[in-house]
Write a structure and sequence with these properties.
The chain is mostly beta strands. The protein contains 2 helices and 70 strands. The protein folds into 9 domains: 90 residues, Immunoglobulins (Immunoglobulin-like, Sandwich), CATH 2.60.40.10; 101 residues, Sandwich (Immunoglobulin-like), CATH 2.60.40; 97 residues, Immunoglobulin-like; 61 residues, Sandwich (Immunoglobulin-like); 41 residues, no CATH class; 80 residues, Immunoglobulin-like (Sandwich); 82 residues, Immunoglobulins (Immunoglobulin-like, Sandwich); 76 residues, Immunoglobulin-like; and more. Strands 57, 59, 60, 61, 62, 64 and 65 form a 7-stranded mixed beta sheet that branches. Its main location: membrane.
């Protein structure tokens, strides 16, 4: 940065002034206290065991002696005439006050200082917490921070995780005080389980500019638990049979943390391996117990225990379980498989002390066996003997039983219940032939057809057909003997109407004799009936004489007990051709363009071939219909035609007269879509012609409100007309647009800016004209006027930098094919005031002469055709002459406008008297 010399001089003068004032103040102070001693730093905070340099100085010119008094250790000293510097090392005292002194002029000069030491909280000790604490029990957190200080700057915070439980500060303590202790009593909660507790010590030296010193104790994890005083719930069976397996379970609720609890199950000295499950605060153990047979006879009691351990505490439940042995009883038979008529012995016995029961045998005394003797018969086959043993253990009745089935061998038997002699089946259904014969061993049953044919397997479902009907011989045999039986199978099926017994299509000839017959297959034999669907007459039973009314479709139905079948029989009656007026009109008028074309059809079966040709022409004349029942490919020419119909049974003929008509149609030739009229001419008639047969009627209407008819054309006649042509076959519509043209008229001639133009200024003249077709613009300008510009359509004239030669009369002319019209305007280019004053006198006479000439002119022949209106010259400076037809848009004249009549005899003049 640079300074100018005046500024630098001003700064130096200000500095000298300040120094003078300071010296003056110092001289005043020195007069009061001429010499002093100083100690730097006066106040210091040093970490315990650290070092510090002290500087002791004076302003005494020649001190006699000086020194630094302190109890702290010194390491080195540096001296000067008026100063002393000494290093203090291993500073450990909490507080020291060194004194700096000098002897000067028989006076002792002194300066005292203060040195404080601080010690970091290097040791933060949190007393050990118990391993487990019951939920709801109080515990004490105790934190010790030995040696840290000064205590007044120390704070101790006890934390649960990151949550502050307690903070202790020591305000007002002596600087010499060191170390701190903090305690907090809390209640163990579930939320405290596995939460870290810690202690935070903070030594705040920020007021001394040394920052905040922190240290934290090693975190300790707390374990809390909840264990109900009640024992666990033990569920087990009272009795356990040797060699069987039973489930025991033990559960305890209100455990926390349940996942850290342990549960043990034991049966006597045998430790069980339970399956442990956890559900919220509930712990459950389930185990299967089994007692082996060794060493147990009769009944024995064993103890079942369940122990739950959590947080170093146990809860125990126990119960007694009785182990017993009760095997199945013994059931024996003299012979398990015997022939019919053989004697059989059955014996039932159990363990000592048990009561046995045998079906059909008397009840023996307790501990004795039961027995039964019988003669085997067919009814004893598969007889089950049950031996039941009962034993009372601990007041509970136990039951054991064993069963044995007796086999009795006997010959087979074919009865009606197991093997019916008559079977009736339905064709198409799935049926099973069952022929079962009792016997032991189980007999083998076979059924065959002696006469041959398809076999039916026994006991298997089979789709049945009518071929399975017949008589079968069934034989049952085993090792004891055999028996035989005849079985008759009848297969029923619904009616069947086929082409052989009932043809679907039949052709009869009118006048002949026929019979409608239909035969159906089926079991039982079906009945057949036919009713008409589309025929007009019911067929009698037996022979009939055929008429056309018998043609149609008949529905024939065959029925029996197993269903019904139906078919449609179509009867066609053929006959020779004939013409009717409906199907072949004798006089026909076709409409051009319509989809409906003439057809000539003849009645007959087979369908006749119809040919129509124009009369009076060789080779059958013009062909109207090339084949039977067809439509003409194009509209036929009007005239007389002969139609002939033939089929295999004969022919017929008819005369047909054809005439043609057409709907209305308008085109550009008869009804031009755009027509142009001339304003002022005699009003023409809007006519439109339409083609068509009958001759159409045409009506034209104007869109919008109707206007009264006038003898001559006006611009209001322009618009859109809707022309509609109608006859009996339809209508046609055409839109006609009428345009009205007229000669141009200059509606406006405006100068911008209005009034006078100063030399060098700019001005524009805008001309606007109305006319149809649109007018073309042309201009007449003052002679010798240079630099004149025109717009694209010549409607605007512009001058940049006006000169005196630009002043004068400008004329705008508008021209189209029907005439032209023009307006004039005068532009004044005025000079400065000096020229006006100089030329005032000379121009006065000229102005008076001009006024007189103007007055004479207004009364001259140029105004004889109209009227004049002279406004007050003193106020407006304008005089205007208007004729009757020229009072159009330019008659009111803007400033400086002079209009002249051209092309139509209308004249408009204006003169502006301007003053500057």
């Amino acid at each position: 940065m640079t300074f100018s010399q005046p500024l630098l001089l001003r700064a130096l003068l200000a500095l000298v002034g300040s120094l003078c004032l300071g010296l003056f103040a110092l001289s005043g102070a020195a007069a009061q206290e001429p010499y002093w001693a100083d100690l730097q730093p006066r106040s210091a905070l040093v970490e315990r065991g650290g070092s510090l340099w002290l500087n002791c100085s004076t302003n005494c010119p020649r001190p006699e002696r000086g020194g630094l008094e302190t109890s702290l250790r010194r390491n080195g000293t540096q001296r000067g005439l008026r100063w002393l510097a000494r290093q203090l090392v291993d500073i450990r005292e909490p507080e020291a006050h060194p004194i700096c002194f000098f002897r000067c002029a028989r006076r002792t000069l002194q300066a005292r200082g203060t040195i404080l030491t601080y010690q970091r909280p290097d040791r933060v000790e949190l007393e050990l917490l118990p391993t487990w604490l019951p939920v709801g029990e109080n515990f004490t957190l105790s934190c010790r921070v030995p040696g840290a200080g000064p205590r007044g700057s120390l704070s101790v915070t006890l934390l649960r995780g990151a949550q502050e439980l307690s903070r202790r500060r020591f305000p007002g303590e002596s600087p010499r005080a060191r170390g701190a202790m903090a305690t907090f009593t809390a209640t163990a909660r579930r939320e405290d389980h596995r939460v870290n507790f810690s202690c935070l010590a903070e030594l705040d030296l920020r007021p001394h500019g040394l920052g905040l010193l922190q240290n934290r104790s090693t975190p300790q994890e707390l374990h809390t638990f909840a264990l109900a005083p009640e024992p666990p719930s033990l569920a087990f069976p009272r009795l356990l049979e040797i060699g069987t397996e039973q489930l025991v379970s033990c559960e305890m609720d209100k455990l926390f943390p349940a996942q850290e609890a342990h549960i043990h199950l034991a049966l006597g000295s045998q430790m069980l391996s339970p399956r442990v499950s956890l559900d919220g605060d509930k712990l459950k153990a389930t185990a299967a117990i089994t007692v082996k047979e060794e060493g147990v006879e009769g009944e024995d009691e064993q103890e079942l225990t369940c122990t739950v351990t959590l947080g170093g505490q146990n809860r125990k439940a126990q119960g007694n379980l009785t182990v017993y042995s009760f095997p199945q009883p013994n059931l024996t038979v003299s012979e398990a498989s015997v022939r019919e008529g053989t004697f059989v012995n059955v014996t039932c016995e159990a363990r000592p002390g048990a009561q046995v029961l045998l079906d059909g045998a008397p009840e023996p005394p307790p501990g004795e066996p039961a027995w039964l003797t019988l003669t085997a018969s067919e009814e004893d086959d598969e007889r089950v003997f049950i031996c039941e043993a009962l034993l009372e253990v601990k007041g509970e009745i136990l039951r054991r039983n064993r069963s044995l089935e007796l086999q009795v061998l006997y010959r087979p038997r074919l009865d009606e219940a197991g093997c019916p002699g008559n079977w009736t089946w339905l064709e198409g259904m799935e049926s099973t032939l069952q022929c079962w014969a009792p016997g032991n061993p189980p007999p083998v049953v076979e059924c065959v057809r002696p006469e041959g044919g398809p076999a039916i397997p026994l006991g298997l479902p089979l789709p049945i057909s009518r071929d399975h009907a017949g008589t079968y011989q069934c034989t049952a045999s085993n090792t004891v003997g055999q028996t035989t039986k005849d079985v008759t199978v009848m297969v029923e099926y619904g009616p069947v109407l086929d082409q052989l017994g009932c043809p679907e299509r039949r052709t009869w000839l009118e006048g002949t004799e026929e019979v409608l017959t239909c035969q159906a297959l089926g079991v039982p034999p079906p009945m057949v009936s036919c009713i008409p669907i589309g025929a007009r007459a019911q067929l009698p039973v037996g022979q009939l004489r055929v008429t056309r009314e018998h043609a149609g479709t008949y529905h024939c139905v065959a029925t029996n007990l197993r269903g019904s079948a139906s078919t449609n029989v179509s009867i066609t009656v053929e006959y020779g051709p004939s013409f009717g007026e409906v199907d072949c009109p004798g006089a026909w008028t076709w409409v051009k363009g319509s989809d409906h074309q003439f057809s000539c059809e003849a009645d007959g079966n087979p369908e006749p071939v119809v040919l129509c040709s124009r009369a009076g022409n060789s080779s059958h004349g013009e062909l109207l219909f090339p084949h039977r029942g067809s439509h003409a490919g194009q509209d036929p020419a009007p005239g007389l035609y002969y139609c002939n119909a033939t089929n295999t049974h004969g022919s017929a003929s008819k005369r047909v007269t054809v005439s043609a008509e057409s709907p209305p149609q308008m085109d550009e030739a008869g009804c031009p879509s755009h027509q142009t009229w001339l304003e002022g001419a005699r009003a023409p008639m809007l006519t439109c012609r339409a083609q068509g047969n009958p001759t159409p009627r045409v009506h034209c209407s104007r869109d919008g409100p109707e206007r009264p008819e006038k003898p001559s054309v006006s611009r209001a006649d322009a618009g859109t007309f809707h022309c509609v042509a109608t006859n009996s076959h339809g209508s046609d519509t055409r839109i006609v647009t009428i345009g009205v043209e007229y000669r141009p008229l200059v509606a406006e001639l405006v100068a911008m800016p209005p009034g006078s133009v100063k030399p060098g200024g700019n001005f524009t003249l805008t001309c606007r004209a109305e006319g149809s077709p649109p007018a073309q613009y042309s201009w007449r300008t003052p002679p010798g006027a240079p630099n004149i510009g025109l717009s694209g359509n010549n409607s605007t004239l512009s001058v940049a930098g006006a000169l005196g030669s630009h002043g004068g009369v400008y004329e705008c002319a508008a021209t189209n094919t029907h005439g032209s019209h023009a307006l004039r305007i005068t532009v004044h280019v005025t000079g400065p005031w000096l020229w006006i004053v100089v030329g005032g006198v000379a121009g006065g006479a000229l102005l008076l002469a001009s006024l007189g000439g103007l007055t004479y002119y207004l009364q001259s022949t140029a105004c004889k055709k109209g009227e004049y209106n002279v406004q007050e010259a003193e106020s407006s400076g304008e005089a205007v002459c208007l004729n009757g037809s020229g009072a159009g848009p330019g008659a009111g004249g803007g400033t400086g406008a002079e209009a002249g009549a051209e092309g139509g005899g209308a004249e408009v003049y204006s003169i502006q008297l301007t003053s500057t």
